[in-house]
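Check my protein:
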Amino acid sequence: MLPGVDLDRPLFLSKATERKGVAEHAPKSGGVGGTAAAAPPPPPPPPPPPTCSTPCAPCARARAQALAPARPPQRTRRRRRALLLRLRRRGEVLVPQIHQPGLVGLGSGAASAPPPASRRRDVSPLIRLASSGRTRRSSLPRRSRKERRARWRGARHGTVAAEEAYDSLDPGGNITIKWDIMQRTPDGYVAVVTMYNYQQFRHIGSPGWQFGWTWAEKEVIWSMVGAQTTEQGDCSHFKGNIPHSCKKDPVVVDLLPGTPYNMQIANCCKSGVISTFSQDPANAASSFQLSVGLAGTTTKTVKVPKNFTLRTPGPGYTCGRAIVGKPSRFFSADGRRETQALMTWNVTCTYSQFLAQKAPSCCVSLSSSYNDTIVDCPTCSCDCQNPSGSNCVNKGSPRLRSAIGDPGKWSGQPLVECTSHMCLVKINWHVKQNSKHYWRVKITITNLNFRMNYTEWNLIVQHPNFDNITQLFGLNYKPLTPHGGDINDTAMFWGVKSYNDVLMQEGKLGTVQSELLLRKDSKTFIFEKGWAFPRGVYFNGDNCVMPAPENYPSLPMQH
Protein backbone atom coordinates (compact mmCIF):
# COMPACT_ATOMS: atom_id res chain seq x y z
CA MET A 1 0.00 0.00 0.00
CA LEU A 2 1.31 3.45 -0.91
CA PRO A 3 1.89 5.95 1.87
CA GLY A 4 -0.47 8.83 1.83
CA VAL A 5 -3.12 7.19 -0.39
CA ASP A 6 -6.65 6.92 0.85
CA LEU A 7 -8.44 3.98 -0.75
CA ASP A 8 -11.83 5.26 0.33
CA ARG A 9 -11.55 8.33 -1.89
CA PRO A 10 -12.40 8.02 -5.60
CA LEU A 11 -9.46 7.70 -7.98
CA PHE A 12 -11.26 9.17 -10.98
CA LEU A 13 -11.87 12.94 -10.93
CA SER A 14 -12.61 15.46 -13.61
CA LYS A 15 -9.75 16.73 -15.77
CA ALA A 16 -9.98 20.23 -14.30
CA THR A 17 -9.69 18.91 -10.77
CA GLU A 18 -6.75 16.71 -11.77
CA ARG A 19 -4.87 19.65 -13.36
CA LYS A 20 -5.54 21.82 -10.32
CA GLY A 21 -4.35 19.18 -7.90
CA VAL A 22 -1.19 18.45 -9.85
CA ALA A 23 -0.39 22.17 -10.07
CA GLU A 24 -0.78 22.60 -6.33
CA HIS A 25 1.35 19.65 -5.30
CA ALA A 26 3.97 19.57 -8.09
CA PRO A 27 7.52 20.37 -6.84
CA LYS A 28 8.83 23.86 -7.78
CA SER A 29 12.14 23.83 -9.71
CA GLY A 30 14.45 26.80 -10.22
CA GLY A 31 16.36 27.82 -13.37
CA VAL A 32 19.85 26.59 -14.29
CA GLY A 33 22.53 29.14 -15.28
CA GLY A 34 25.86 28.81 -17.20
CA THR A 35 27.97 30.05 -20.11
CA ALA A 36 27.84 28.78 -23.65
CA ALA A 37 31.43 27.56 -23.70
CA ALA A 38 31.01 25.53 -20.56
CA ALA A 39 30.22 21.84 -20.82
CA PRO A 40 26.54 21.08 -20.71
CA PRO A 41 25.50 20.10 -17.25
CA PRO A 42 24.21 16.57 -16.71
CA PRO A 43 20.49 16.15 -17.06
CA PRO A 44 18.65 16.71 -13.85
CA PRO A 45 17.44 13.58 -12.08
CA PRO A 46 13.78 12.77 -12.43
CA PRO A 47 11.68 14.55 -9.88
CA PRO A 48 10.68 12.43 -6.94
CA PRO A 49 7.12 11.26 -6.75
CA PRO A 50 4.88 13.96 -5.36
CA THR A 51 3.97 13.78 -1.76
CA CYS A 52 1.72 15.84 0.34
CA SER A 53 0.55 15.97 3.86
CA THR A 54 -3.08 15.56 2.83
CA PRO A 55 -3.71 12.39 0.74
CA CYS A 56 -5.53 12.99 -2.52
CA ALA A 57 -6.30 11.19 -5.76
CA PRO A 58 -4.10 13.39 -8.04
CA CYS A 59 -1.06 12.54 -5.97
CA ALA A 60 -1.79 8.84 -6.20
CA ARG A 61 -2.26 9.10 -9.97
CA ALA A 62 0.93 11.11 -10.50
CA ARG A 63 2.93 8.74 -8.33
CA ALA A 64 1.65 5.71 -10.25
CA GLN A 65 2.55 7.32 -13.59
CA ALA A 66 6.04 8.12 -12.33
CA LEU A 67 6.69 4.55 -11.15
CA ALA A 68 5.05 2.80 -14.13
CA PRO A 69 7.40 1.42 -16.83
CA ALA A 70 7.58 3.08 -20.23
CA ARG A 71 4.74 2.10 -22.53
CA PRO A 72 5.42 0.47 -25.87
CA PRO A 73 4.75 2.57 -28.94
CA GLN A 74 1.19 2.70 -30.10
CA ARG A 75 0.23 0.32 -32.90
CA THR A 76 -2.72 0.43 -35.21
CA ARG A 77 -5.59 -2.01 -34.87
CA ARG A 78 -4.52 -3.92 -37.97
CA ARG A 79 -0.99 -4.43 -36.69
CA ARG A 80 -2.31 -5.51 -33.32
CA ARG A 81 -4.54 -8.11 -34.95
CA ALA A 82 -1.61 -9.42 -36.98
CA LEU A 83 0.49 -9.69 -33.82
CA LEU A 84 -2.27 -11.56 -32.01
CA LEU A 85 -2.67 -13.95 -34.95
CA ARG A 86 1.07 -14.71 -34.98
CA LEU A 87 1.02 -15.39 -31.25
CA ARG A 88 -1.90 -17.77 -31.65
CA ARG A 89 -0.16 -19.69 -34.41
CA ARG A 90 2.96 -20.09 -32.29
CA GLY A 91 0.90 -21.24 -29.33
CA GLU A 92 1.68 -18.11 -27.30
CA VAL A 93 -0.74 -15.56 -25.92
CA LEU A 94 0.11 -11.96 -25.03
CA VAL A 95 -1.21 -11.28 -21.53
CA PRO A 96 -1.48 -7.52 -20.95
CA GLN A 97 -1.75 -5.82 -17.58
CA ILE A 98 -5.41 -5.66 -16.80
CA HIS A 99 -6.47 -2.65 -14.78
CA GLN A 100 -8.80 -3.43 -11.91
CA PRO A 101 -10.19 -0.31 -10.19
CA GLY A 102 -9.92 -0.38 -6.43
CA LEU A 103 -6.74 -2.55 -6.29
CA VAL A 104 -3.69 -0.48 -5.32
CA GLY A 105 -0.08 -1.55 -5.12
CA LEU A 106 -0.42 -5.28 -5.84
CA GLY A 107 3.05 -6.80 -5.89
CA SER A 108 5.14 -3.73 -6.75
CA GLY A 109 3.72 -1.35 -4.19
CA ALA A 110 2.31 0.98 -6.86
CA ALA A 111 -1.21 1.80 -7.88
CA SER A 112 -2.22 0.72 -11.40
CA ALA A 113 -3.46 3.67 -13.41
CA PRO A 114 -6.36 3.09 -15.80
CA PRO A 115 -5.11 3.18 -19.40
CA PRO A 116 -6.63 5.61 -21.90
CA ALA A 117 -9.90 4.70 -23.60
CA SER A 118 -8.20 4.08 -26.96
CA ARG A 119 -5.70 1.69 -25.38
CA ARG A 120 -8.41 -0.23 -23.55
CA ARG A 121 -10.32 -0.63 -26.80
CA ASP A 122 -7.29 -1.93 -28.72
CA VAL A 123 -6.22 -4.55 -26.20
CA SER A 124 -9.72 -5.86 -25.44
CA PRO A 125 -9.26 -8.95 -27.67
CA LEU A 126 -6.07 -9.80 -25.79
CA ILE A 127 -7.79 -9.25 -22.44
CA ARG A 128 -10.62 -11.60 -23.42
CA LEU A 129 -8.12 -14.18 -24.63
CA ALA A 130 -6.10 -13.94 -21.43
CA SER A 131 -9.17 -14.18 -19.20
CA SER A 132 -10.36 -17.34 -21.04
CA GLY A 133 -7.46 -19.32 -19.60
CA ARG A 134 -5.61 -19.95 -22.88
CA THR A 135 -1.90 -19.64 -22.14
CA ARG A 136 1.30 -20.79 -23.73
CA ARG A 137 0.95 -24.32 -25.12
CA SER A 138 3.80 -24.57 -27.61
CA SER A 139 4.88 -27.87 -26.06
CA LEU A 140 1.54 -29.55 -26.93
CA PRO A 141 0.88 -31.08 -30.37
CA ARG A 142 -1.22 -28.75 -32.50
CA ARG A 143 -4.11 -30.15 -34.54
CA SER A 144 -4.59 -29.13 -38.12
CA ARG A 145 -7.53 -26.99 -39.17
CA LYS A 146 -9.23 -29.99 -40.79
CA GLU A 147 -8.91 -32.07 -37.62
CA ARG A 148 -10.28 -29.28 -35.44
CA ARG A 149 -13.21 -28.78 -37.78
CA ALA A 150 -13.99 -32.50 -37.92
CA ARG A 151 -13.70 -32.75 -34.13
CA TRP A 152 -16.11 -29.85 -33.63
CA ARG A 153 -18.61 -31.25 -36.11
CA GLY A 154 -18.44 -34.70 -34.58
CA ALA A 155 -18.99 -33.41 -31.07
CA ARG A 156 -21.88 -31.27 -32.19
CA HIS A 157 -23.46 -34.08 -34.17
CA GLY A 158 -23.03 -36.57 -31.38
CA THR A 159 -24.75 -34.30 -28.92
CA VAL A 160 -27.69 -33.62 -31.21
CA ALA A 161 -28.11 -37.29 -32.15
CA ALA A 162 -28.04 -38.40 -28.54
CA GLU A 163 -30.71 -35.87 -27.53
CA GLU A 164 -33.05 -36.52 -30.43
CA ALA A 165 -33.04 -40.33 -30.41
CA TYR A 166 -32.05 -42.33 -27.33
CA ASP A 167 -33.11 -45.93 -26.68
CA SER A 168 -32.43 -47.21 -23.17
CA LEU A 169 -32.43 -50.82 -24.40
CA ASP A 170 -29.92 -50.07 -27.17
CA PRO A 171 -28.02 -46.88 -26.24
CA GLY A 172 -25.37 -47.21 -28.96
CA GLY A 173 -27.67 -48.35 -31.76
CA ASN A 174 -27.43 -46.47 -35.07
CA ILE A 175 -27.09 -46.87 -38.81
CA THR A 176 -23.71 -45.73 -40.10
CA ILE A 177 -23.42 -44.80 -43.79
CA LYS A 178 -19.89 -44.83 -45.16
CA TRP A 179 -19.07 -42.99 -48.40
CA ASP A 180 -15.76 -44.21 -49.91
CA ILE A 181 -14.23 -42.52 -52.97
CA MET A 182 -12.48 -45.34 -54.80
CA GLN A 183 -11.13 -43.64 -57.94
CA ARG A 184 -11.01 -40.35 -59.82
CA THR A 185 -12.66 -39.54 -63.13
CA PRO A 186 -11.99 -36.62 -65.50
CA ASP A 187 -14.81 -34.59 -63.95
CA GLY A 188 -15.48 -36.29 -60.61
CA TYR A 189 -15.11 -39.58 -58.82
CA VAL A 190 -16.52 -43.10 -58.34
CA ALA A 191 -17.75 -43.88 -54.83
CA VAL A 192 -19.12 -46.90 -52.98
CA VAL A 193 -21.78 -46.14 -50.35
CA THR A 194 -22.39 -48.77 -47.64
CA MET A 195 -25.01 -48.79 -44.87
CA TYR A 196 -24.21 -50.71 -41.68
CA ASN A 197 -27.01 -51.48 -39.22
CA TYR A 198 -25.48 -51.37 -35.73
CA GLN A 199 -28.84 -51.66 -33.95
CA GLN A 200 -29.49 -54.73 -31.85
CA PHE A 201 -33.15 -55.29 -32.61
CA ARG A 202 -34.36 -52.66 -35.09
CA HIS A 203 -34.05 -53.61 -38.75
CA ILE A 204 -35.28 -52.12 -42.02
CA GLY A 205 -38.04 -54.22 -43.50
CA SER A 206 -40.00 -54.17 -46.73
CA PRO A 207 -40.45 -51.99 -48.82
CA GLY A 208 -36.90 -50.99 -47.87
CA TRP A 209 -34.77 -47.93 -47.29
CA GLN A 210 -34.75 -44.61 -49.16
CA PHE A 211 -31.51 -42.65 -48.84
CA GLY A 212 -31.28 -39.02 -49.92
CA TRP A 213 -28.98 -36.01 -49.70
CA THR A 214 -28.39 -32.55 -51.20
CA TRP A 215 -25.37 -31.81 -53.38
CA ALA A 216 -23.08 -29.01 -52.25
CA GLU A 217 -22.51 -27.73 -55.81
CA LYS A 218 -23.91 -28.71 -59.23
CA GLU A 219 -22.91 -32.40 -59.14
CA VAL A 220 -24.74 -35.02 -61.20
CA ILE A 221 -24.85 -38.82 -61.11
CA TRP A 222 -23.59 -40.30 -64.37
CA SER A 223 -24.34 -43.94 -63.52
CA MET A 224 -25.21 -46.26 -60.64
CA VAL A 225 -24.69 -49.95 -59.84
CA GLY A 226 -26.76 -51.78 -57.22
CA ALA A 227 -29.31 -48.98 -56.77
CA GLN A 228 -31.20 -46.28 -58.64
CA THR A 229 -32.64 -42.84 -58.06
CA THR A 230 -36.37 -42.36 -57.93
CA GLU A 231 -36.25 -39.31 -60.27
CA GLN A 232 -33.93 -38.27 -63.08
CA GLY A 233 -34.53 -34.54 -62.85
CA ASP A 234 -33.93 -31.89 -65.51
CA CYS A 235 -31.01 -32.95 -67.74
CA SER A 236 -32.01 -30.83 -70.75
CA HIS A 237 -28.74 -28.86 -70.77
CA PHE A 238 -26.71 -32.03 -71.46
CA LYS A 239 -25.96 -33.14 -75.01
CA GLY A 240 -24.90 -36.63 -75.93
CA ASN A 241 -24.47 -38.61 -72.72
CA ILE A 242 -27.42 -38.06 -70.38
CA PRO A 243 -26.71 -38.49 -66.63
CA HIS A 244 -28.59 -40.99 -64.53
CA SER A 245 -29.81 -38.15 -62.28
CA CYS A 246 -29.50 -34.36 -62.41
CA LYS A 247 -31.53 -33.56 -59.27
CA LYS A 248 -30.07 -31.33 -56.62
CA ASP A 249 -31.51 -33.63 -53.93
CA PRO A 250 -31.63 -37.19 -55.30
CA VAL A 251 -33.32 -40.07 -53.47
CA VAL A 252 -31.80 -43.54 -53.92
CA VAL A 253 -33.56 -46.91 -53.50
CA ASP A 254 -32.22 -50.45 -53.60
CA LEU A 255 -32.75 -52.78 -56.56
CA LEU A 256 -34.91 -55.90 -56.41
CA PRO A 257 -33.60 -59.47 -56.19
CA GLY A 258 -32.97 -61.00 -59.61
CA THR A 259 -31.29 -57.89 -61.02
CA PRO A 260 -28.85 -58.73 -63.90
CA TYR A 261 -25.33 -59.39 -62.67
CA ASN A 262 -23.83 -56.49 -64.61
CA MET A 263 -25.96 -54.12 -62.49
CA GLN A 264 -25.09 -55.69 -59.14
CA ILE A 265 -22.49 -55.03 -56.46
CA ALA A 266 -21.76 -56.82 -53.21
CA ASN A 267 -24.51 -56.41 -50.54
CA CYS A 268 -27.01 -54.97 -52.99
CA CYS A 269 -30.33 -55.88 -54.56
CA LYS A 270 -32.26 -56.98 -51.46
CA SER A 271 -35.28 -54.66 -51.89
CA GLY A 272 -33.78 -52.34 -49.30
CA VAL A 273 -34.15 -54.83 -46.43
CA ILE A 274 -31.33 -54.67 -43.86
CA SER A 275 -31.19 -57.14 -40.96
CA THR A 276 -29.72 -56.58 -37.52
CA PHE A 277 -26.39 -57.97 -36.42
CA SER A 278 -28.19 -60.04 -33.78
CA GLN A 279 -30.51 -61.85 -36.20
CA ASP A 280 -28.52 -62.07 -39.45
CA PRO A 281 -25.05 -60.48 -39.45
CA ALA A 282 -24.41 -61.50 -43.08
CA ASN A 283 -27.30 -59.29 -44.27
CA ALA A 284 -26.80 -56.36 -41.89
CA ALA A 285 -25.32 -54.14 -44.62
CA SER A 286 -26.38 -52.72 -47.97
CA SER A 287 -24.19 -51.12 -50.67
CA PHE A 288 -24.35 -49.36 -54.03
CA GLN A 289 -21.92 -47.63 -56.36
CA LEU A 290 -22.29 -44.30 -58.13
CA SER A 291 -20.23 -42.22 -60.54
CA VAL A 292 -20.39 -38.50 -59.73
CA GLY A 293 -19.69 -35.81 -62.32
CA LEU A 294 -19.16 -32.04 -62.25
CA ALA A 295 -17.42 -32.50 -58.91
CA GLY A 296 -13.95 -31.91 -57.53
CA THR A 297 -11.09 -34.06 -58.75
CA THR A 298 -8.84 -33.74 -55.68
CA THR A 299 -9.29 -34.28 -51.97
CA LYS A 300 -9.37 -30.52 -51.36
CA THR A 301 -11.87 -29.70 -54.12
CA VAL A 302 -14.40 -32.49 -53.44
CA LYS A 303 -17.45 -31.05 -51.69
CA VAL A 304 -19.19 -33.21 -49.12
CA PRO A 305 -22.98 -33.53 -49.61
CA LYS A 306 -25.33 -32.27 -46.91
CA ASN A 307 -28.88 -32.70 -45.57
CA PHE A 308 -28.79 -36.51 -45.48
CA THR A 309 -32.12 -38.31 -45.01
CA LEU A 310 -33.01 -41.96 -44.40
CA ARG A 311 -36.59 -43.16 -44.70
CA THR A 312 -37.78 -46.72 -44.17
CA PRO A 313 -40.02 -45.69 -46.02
CA GLY A 314 -41.61 -43.45 -43.39
CA PRO A 315 -39.83 -41.03 -41.04
CA GLY A 316 -38.08 -41.97 -37.82
CA TYR A 317 -34.37 -41.65 -38.60
CA THR A 318 -32.43 -38.44 -38.06
CA CYS A 319 -29.09 -38.19 -39.89
CA GLY A 320 -26.24 -35.91 -38.90
CA ARG A 321 -23.77 -34.14 -41.13
CA ALA A 322 -20.98 -35.99 -42.92
CA ILE A 323 -17.72 -36.30 -40.98
CA VAL A 324 -14.54 -36.76 -43.00
CA GLY A 325 -12.42 -39.46 -41.38
CA LYS A 326 -9.56 -41.78 -42.13
CA PRO A 327 -9.78 -43.52 -45.53
CA SER A 328 -11.25 -47.02 -45.35
CA ARG A 329 -8.92 -49.98 -45.86
CA PHE A 330 -9.75 -53.06 -47.90
CA PHE A 331 -8.07 -56.46 -48.01
CA SER A 332 -7.88 -58.89 -50.88
CA ALA A 333 -9.54 -62.31 -50.74
CA ASP A 334 -6.31 -64.01 -49.67
CA GLY A 335 -5.54 -61.26 -47.15
CA ARG A 336 -2.10 -60.55 -48.59
CA ARG A 337 -2.79 -57.14 -50.15
CA GLU A 338 -4.27 -54.04 -48.59
CA THR A 339 -5.75 -51.06 -50.44
CA GLN A 340 -7.47 -47.92 -49.19
CA ALA A 341 -10.01 -45.41 -50.39
CA LEU A 342 -8.93 -41.99 -51.63
CA MET A 343 -11.32 -40.23 -49.25
CA THR A 344 -13.97 -41.36 -46.76
CA TRP A 345 -16.74 -39.66 -44.81
CA ASN A 346 -19.32 -41.14 -42.46
CA VAL A 347 -22.93 -40.26 -41.74
CA THR A 348 -24.69 -41.50 -38.58
CA CYS A 349 -28.48 -41.93 -38.44
CA THR A 350 -30.41 -42.65 -35.24
CA TYR A 351 -34.01 -43.74 -34.76
CA SER A 352 -36.75 -42.16 -32.67
CA GLN A 353 -40.19 -43.72 -32.28
CA PHE A 354 -41.66 -40.28 -31.55
CA LEU A 355 -40.54 -39.07 -34.98
CA ALA A 356 -41.62 -42.27 -36.73
CA GLN A 357 -45.25 -42.27 -35.66
CA LYS A 358 -47.52 -40.26 -33.42
CA ALA A 359 -49.39 -43.33 -32.12
CA PRO A 360 -48.21 -46.80 -31.04
CA SER A 361 -48.38 -49.69 -33.49
CA CYS A 362 -48.85 -52.69 -31.18
CA CYS A 363 -50.57 -53.70 -27.95
CA VAL A 364 -50.53 -56.59 -25.47
CA SER A 365 -53.32 -58.77 -24.13
CA LEU A 366 -53.00 -61.05 -21.07
CA SER A 367 -54.58 -64.36 -20.08
CA SER A 368 -53.88 -67.28 -17.76
CA SER A 369 -54.97 -70.85 -17.04
CA TYR A 370 -55.99 -70.02 -13.47
CA ASN A 371 -58.42 -67.26 -14.45
CA ASP A 372 -61.04 -67.28 -17.20
CA THR A 373 -60.75 -63.53 -17.68
CA ILE A 374 -58.93 -62.38 -20.84
CA VAL A 375 -57.56 -58.89 -20.49
CA ASP A 376 -57.71 -57.43 -23.99
CA CYS A 377 -55.74 -54.47 -25.30
CA PRO A 378 -56.97 -51.16 -23.90
CA THR A 379 -59.58 -49.40 -26.00
CA CYS A 380 -58.12 -46.98 -28.56
CA SER A 381 -54.57 -48.12 -27.72
CA CYS A 382 -53.30 -47.12 -31.16
CA ASP A 383 -56.28 -45.27 -32.66
CA CYS A 384 -60.03 -45.03 -32.52
CA GLN A 385 -62.50 -45.98 -35.21
CA ASN A 386 -64.17 -43.24 -37.17
CA PRO A 387 -67.93 -43.18 -36.89
CA SER A 388 -68.10 -44.06 -40.56
CA GLY A 389 -65.38 -46.75 -40.26
CA SER A 390 -63.33 -45.23 -43.06
CA ASN A 391 -59.96 -45.78 -41.32
CA CYS A 392 -60.27 -49.57 -41.08
CA VAL A 393 -61.74 -52.59 -42.88
CA ASN A 394 -63.62 -55.55 -41.45
CA LYS A 395 -62.88 -59.13 -42.37
CA GLY A 396 -65.05 -60.32 -45.23
CA SER A 397 -65.97 -56.78 -46.22
CA PRO A 398 -66.80 -56.40 -49.94
CA ARG A 399 -64.43 -53.44 -50.25
CA LEU A 400 -61.48 -55.31 -48.71
CA ARG A 401 -60.00 -56.44 -52.02
CA SER A 402 -60.19 -53.02 -53.62
CA ALA A 403 -58.83 -51.31 -50.50
CA ILE A 404 -55.75 -53.55 -50.41
CA GLY A 405 -54.78 -52.69 -53.99
CA ASP A 406 -55.30 -48.90 -53.87
CA PRO A 407 -52.34 -46.47 -54.21
CA GLY A 408 -51.65 -46.64 -50.46
CA LYS A 409 -50.11 -50.07 -51.06
CA TRP A 410 -47.01 -48.52 -52.68
CA SER A 411 -46.59 -45.77 -50.11
CA GLY A 412 -46.52 -48.20 -47.18
CA GLN A 413 -49.71 -46.82 -45.65
CA PRO A 414 -51.19 -49.50 -43.36
CA LEU A 415 -54.67 -50.94 -43.75
CA VAL A 416 -55.78 -52.18 -40.33
CA GLU A 417 -58.62 -54.45 -39.32
CA CYS A 418 -61.42 -52.80 -37.37
CA THR A 419 -60.93 -53.57 -33.67
CA SER A 420 -61.45 -51.81 -30.37
CA HIS A 421 -57.73 -51.05 -30.07
CA MET A 422 -56.94 -50.37 -33.80
CA CYS A 423 -53.36 -51.66 -33.55
CA LEU A 424 -51.42 -53.22 -36.40
CA VAL A 425 -49.94 -56.02 -34.29
CA LYS A 426 -51.34 -57.73 -31.21
CA ILE A 427 -49.27 -59.83 -28.78
CA ASN A 428 -50.91 -62.21 -26.31
CA TRP A 429 -49.06 -63.46 -23.22
CA HIS A 430 -50.74 -66.58 -21.80
CA VAL A 431 -49.61 -68.31 -18.59
CA LYS A 432 -50.33 -71.83 -19.77
CA GLN A 433 -49.06 -74.26 -17.15
CA ASN A 434 -47.79 -74.31 -13.59
CA SER A 435 -45.87 -77.27 -12.17
CA LYS A 436 -43.72 -77.83 -9.12
CA HIS A 437 -40.40 -76.67 -10.57
CA TYR A 438 -41.37 -75.08 -13.90
CA TRP A 439 -43.98 -72.87 -15.48
CA ARG A 440 -44.89 -72.45 -19.17
CA VAL A 441 -45.86 -69.37 -21.21
CA LYS A 442 -47.43 -69.24 -24.67
CA ILE A 443 -46.78 -66.20 -26.87
CA THR A 444 -49.05 -65.40 -29.83
CA ILE A 445 -48.28 -62.64 -32.33
CA THR A 446 -51.09 -61.61 -34.68
CA ASN A 447 -50.75 -59.32 -37.70
CA LEU A 448 -53.81 -57.13 -38.22
CA ASN A 449 -52.38 -55.20 -41.16
CA PHE A 450 -53.87 -56.25 -44.51
CA ARG A 451 -51.07 -54.68 -46.56
CA MET A 452 -47.80 -55.67 -44.90
CA ASN A 453 -45.78 -58.77 -44.16
CA TYR A 454 -43.31 -58.35 -41.29
CA THR A 455 -40.11 -59.98 -42.49
CA GLU A 456 -37.49 -60.88 -39.87
CA TRP A 457 -39.66 -59.65 -37.04
CA ASN A 458 -38.43 -59.63 -33.45
CA LEU A 459 -39.94 -59.31 -30.01
CA ILE A 460 -38.36 -57.74 -26.91
CA VAL A 461 -39.87 -58.75 -23.56
CA GLN A 462 -38.92 -57.63 -20.05
CA HIS A 463 -39.50 -60.08 -17.19
CA PRO A 464 -37.48 -60.79 -13.99
CA ASN A 465 -37.50 -64.59 -14.55
CA PHE A 466 -35.66 -64.58 -17.90
CA ASP A 467 -32.42 -65.62 -16.22
CA ASN A 468 -34.07 -69.04 -15.76
CA ILE A 469 -35.22 -69.75 -19.33
CA THR A 470 -34.90 -73.51 -19.82
CA GLN A 471 -36.30 -74.24 -23.28
CA LEU A 472 -37.86 -72.46 -26.26
CA PHE A 473 -40.10 -73.92 -28.94
CA GLY A 474 -39.85 -72.45 -32.44
CA LEU A 475 -38.00 -69.24 -31.48
CA ASN A 476 -34.47 -67.90 -31.32
CA TYR A 477 -33.38 -66.21 -28.12
CA LYS A 478 -30.73 -63.71 -27.09
CA PRO A 479 -30.43 -62.04 -23.68
CA LEU A 480 -30.07 -58.27 -23.60
CA THR A 481 -28.37 -56.68 -20.63
CA PRO A 482 -28.92 -52.92 -20.88
CA HIS A 483 -28.56 -52.55 -17.10
CA GLY A 484 -25.36 -54.59 -16.76
CA GLY A 485 -24.31 -58.23 -16.99
CA ASP A 486 -25.69 -59.14 -13.57
CA ILE A 487 -29.29 -58.20 -14.40
CA ASN A 488 -30.84 -60.47 -17.04
CA ASP A 489 -34.43 -59.29 -17.30
CA THR A 490 -34.65 -58.43 -21.02
CA ALA A 491 -34.84 -61.01 -23.79
CA MET A 492 -34.98 -60.78 -27.57
CA PHE A 493 -36.96 -63.39 -29.54
CA TRP A 494 -37.21 -63.85 -33.30
CA GLY A 495 -38.40 -66.53 -35.69
CA VAL A 496 -36.51 -69.45 -37.16
CA LYS A 497 -35.34 -68.78 -40.72
CA SER A 498 -37.57 -70.28 -43.42
CA TYR A 499 -40.03 -71.43 -40.75
CA ASN A 500 -41.68 -68.51 -38.95
CA ASP A 501 -39.36 -65.56 -39.58
CA VAL A 502 -42.05 -63.84 -41.69
CA LEU A 503 -45.26 -62.65 -40.06
CA MET A 504 -47.68 -62.74 -42.95
CA GLN A 505 -50.39 -60.17 -43.52
CA GLU A 506 -53.74 -60.46 -41.76
CA GLY A 507 -55.42 -63.79 -42.44
CA LYS A 508 -54.93 -67.48 -41.75
CA LEU A 509 -51.14 -67.22 -41.90
CA GLY A 510 -50.92 -63.92 -40.06
CA THR A 511 -50.15 -65.52 -36.69
CA VAL A 512 -46.97 -66.85 -35.05
CA GLN A 513 -47.10 -68.92 -31.85
CA SER A 514 -44.39 -70.21 -29.55
CA GLU A 515 -43.88 -71.38 -25.98
CA LEU A 516 -41.32 -70.74 -23.26
CA LEU A 517 -40.41 -73.08 -20.41
CA LEU A 518 -38.99 -71.32 -17.36
CA ARG A 519 -37.60 -72.75 -14.14
CA LYS A 520 -39.00 -71.44 -10.88
CA ASP A 521 -36.86 -69.53 -8.45
CA SER A 522 -38.15 -70.17 -4.95
CA LYS A 523 -36.86 -66.81 -3.76
CA THR A 524 -38.67 -64.66 -6.30
CA PHE A 525 -41.40 -66.69 -8.03
CA ILE A 526 -44.99 -65.79 -7.19
CA PHE A 527 -48.26 -65.69 -9.12
CA GLU A 528 -49.78 -62.92 -7.06
CA LYS A 529 -49.99 -59.26 -8.05
CA GLY A 530 -49.36 -59.97 -11.75
CA TRP A 531 -45.76 -61.13 -11.26
CA ALA A 532 -46.08 -63.72 -14.06
CA PHE A 533 -46.82 -61.09 -16.72
CA PRO A 534 -44.23 -59.00 -18.59
CA ARG A 535 -43.15 -55.52 -17.53
CA GLY A 536 -42.70 -54.29 -21.10
CA VAL A 537 -43.07 -55.59 -24.66
CA TYR A 538 -41.53 -54.20 -27.87
CA PHE A 539 -42.29 -55.36 -31.41
CA ASN A 540 -39.58 -54.50 -33.96
CA GLY A 541 -38.25 -51.98 -31.45
CA ASP A 542 -41.54 -50.11 -30.99
CA ASN A 543 -43.03 -49.95 -27.50
CA CYS A 544 -46.38 -51.76 -27.20
CA VAL A 545 -49.31 -50.61 -25.06
CA MET A 546 -49.82 -52.71 -21.93
CA PRO A 547 -53.07 -53.11 -19.94
CA ALA A 548 -53.37 -51.32 -16.61
CA PRO A 549 -51.85 -53.33 -13.71
CA GLU A 550 -55.13 -53.38 -11.79
CA ASN A 551 -56.73 -55.28 -14.68
CA TYR A 552 -54.22 -58.15 -14.74
CA PRO A 553 -55.68 -61.65 -14.27
CA SER A 554 -55.61 -62.49 -10.57
CA LEU A 555 -55.55 -65.74 -8.61
CA PRO A 556 -58.93 -67.22 -7.74
CA MET A 557 -60.33 -66.37 -4.33
CA GLN A 558 -59.62 -69.01 -1.68
CA HIS A 559 -62.55 -69.92 0.58
Q: What stands out?
A: The chain has nine helices and 26 strands. The chain has three domains: 1-9+77-142, 148-355, 360-551.
